[in-house]
Each structure stands twice: as structure tokens, then as C-alpha cells.
């Protein structure tokens, strides 16, 4: 689980840094961040 949190954090940070929407296939991640971030579930 710790590896998953680190990966999620890294992906979110990268999308913010690059000013692009976060694209994810992870429904749990999408639900966690959709109200705070520009995220698209694909």
C-alpha cells in the first residue's frame, strides 16, 4: 500500500507541475482527487 501512495502522489505532482489534467484508470484515485484536481477517468 505504501508504494501505491507514493505512486499516486508522484503522478498527481507531475500533472500539477506540467499543468495538465491527471488521466487515470484508477477509480479509487479518481474519487479521492476529483473535487480538488483536474482529473479525468479513462
Strand order of the largest sheet: 1-2
Distance between the termini: 22 Å
Counting H and I runs of at least 4 residues, what is the number of helices? Answer: 2
Residues in helix, %: 55-70%
- Tell me, briefly, the overall form: globular
Number of strands: 2
Portion of residues in beta strands equals 5-15%
Rg, rounded, reads 10 Å
Reported for the largest beta sheet, the result is:
2 strands, parallel
Structural class: alpha+beta
- How do the SSEs run, as a string of H and E? HEHE
List low-confidence stretches: none
Mean pLDDT: 90
Structural description of this entry:
- Strands 1-2 form a two-stranded parallel ribbon.
- The chain contains two helices and two strands.
- The chain is globular and about 25 Å long.
- α2 links the parallel β1 (22-24) and β2 (39-41).
- The mean pLDDT is 90.
- It is of the alpha+beta class.
- It is 57% helix and 14% strand.
- The protein has helices at residues 2-18, 27-33; strands spanning 22-24, 39-41.
What's a concise summary of this model?
This protein has 2 helices and 2 strands.
Top keywords for this entry?
42 residues, alpha+beta, two-stranded parallel ribbon, 2 strands, 57% helix, globular
List the helices and strands and how they pair.
Layout: H1 2-18, E1 22-24, H2 27-33, E2 39-41
Parallel strand pairs: 1-2
